[in-house]
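Example 3.2
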Amino acid sequence: MSMAVAERLAPRPEAAAETSLAARLRRETRDLHDRIEANHRFARLMAPDLTRGEYRGLVARLHGHHAPLEEALLPLLPAAFQPERRLPRRALLRADLRALGLAEAAIDALPQCQAYRFRTPAQALGALYVLEGAGLGGQVIARHLAATLRLGPEEGTAALVPHGAETGALWRQFRLALDGAAVEAAAVVEAARFTFTTLDRWMAEG
């Protein structure tokens, strides 16, 4: 085979990127991602007339979803994904609620989502894709809340950007690790779709 023919037949980097697991997840969950953004509670986050009380209610609802989800993921995530580093939302949401005026007893009494029964690393990675991706949009929301409600990480927005200044770098690391993970791609996608759907319903019902 000539070098010219070999070069034509060799997979292009951009073609490989389009067939990666991260790209497949983006493609096959796009409809649910769009639905989440249209969810009334999430859409209100960017409203100019959002009140502090309304925001606190949303944070309380997020705590009820994210806390049990992170507990379910912690024992399942492969060590390469640094589970302890990737799952800080439970503690951050609790701290945000305290900063917004909720007492510990009130936080403990908040409803908890009971939908998650994951059993495999592939399922855990699909759910983590949803959580990690949310941090990217959270940066925009955090800036908006700083301007409208004068809230910063110490006043109740820490969980919106759980990785802080490392958000972009950790997202890129996550995508690379995801593409190299020895897991069934279909199971990852199915779990991601289930997580998007569950979050959407949980937020709409609260």
